[in-house]
Structure formats: structure tokens, C-alpha cells
Design brief:
mainly alpha; 2 strands; two-stranded antiparallel ribbon; 133 residues
Length: 133
Amino acid sequence: MLIGEISDRTGLSRDTIRFYEKKGLIKVSRTDSEWNNYKNYNQQNLDRLILIKRAKGFGFTLNEICEILELYEINSANCATLLTKVNKKIDEIDNKIKQLEALKKTIIDKVNDANNNCQSSYKNENCSSIQRE
């Protein structure tokens, strides 16, 4: 398959496919032809790209996806191992949500404090309440 076909079959852009190749997530051979030097994508490339796309959909980073791909390469990507990785990702997401909620509360508190204590006398005067800690 040429890049256009694999792009159509995966729903990934050509640039994304090239990026994954550059990062070493897929390995592509070049066709032997006297007329061109096109890259030839095979079924394994297609399968890996679909797996990468699914893993991205679960929120995995490229580094985490590399780990998952390595597990597949050594035939160790069993359900228990993958479930452990997914549960770890869920815990990370829950932790990030808590951090974002705390940040949101801090911002709301500071904005309310600034709004209640604003000392600006003129329309174009900077608000000193936000600058105070």
C-alpha cells in the first residue's frame, strides 16, 4: 500500500503517518522500482497504525503507546497487562481532574477576591487586587 491508501484505511493523515514512522512506531520499506522510490506500507503497518489510533483514543501518550507496541512485539499484551495499563491511565486522569478542580477553585476564589476588593478609581487603571498575593 502507498501512503494515500493506508491514510484512507486508517483515517490518519499522511503527516501523522510520517510522524509515527519518524518516531519509530512503524517501519516502512521502500519499493524497488526503476521509476520511483515510494514507501510500501504492509498489513503489519496498517495493524500497528490502527492500534496506535485506538490507544491515542484511550488517552495514552506516544511513550505509553511505544510500551504497548513493545508488549505486542514480545506477545505479552494479554488482557490483564493491558487492563492494568488502562486502569493506571484512569487513575492518572482522575488525579489530573482533581488537580484541575483545585486550580479552578483557586482561580475562582482569586477572581472573587479581586472583584470584591478592587480599588481601581478609573476605567483605565490597572487592578491591583489580582497583583496582590
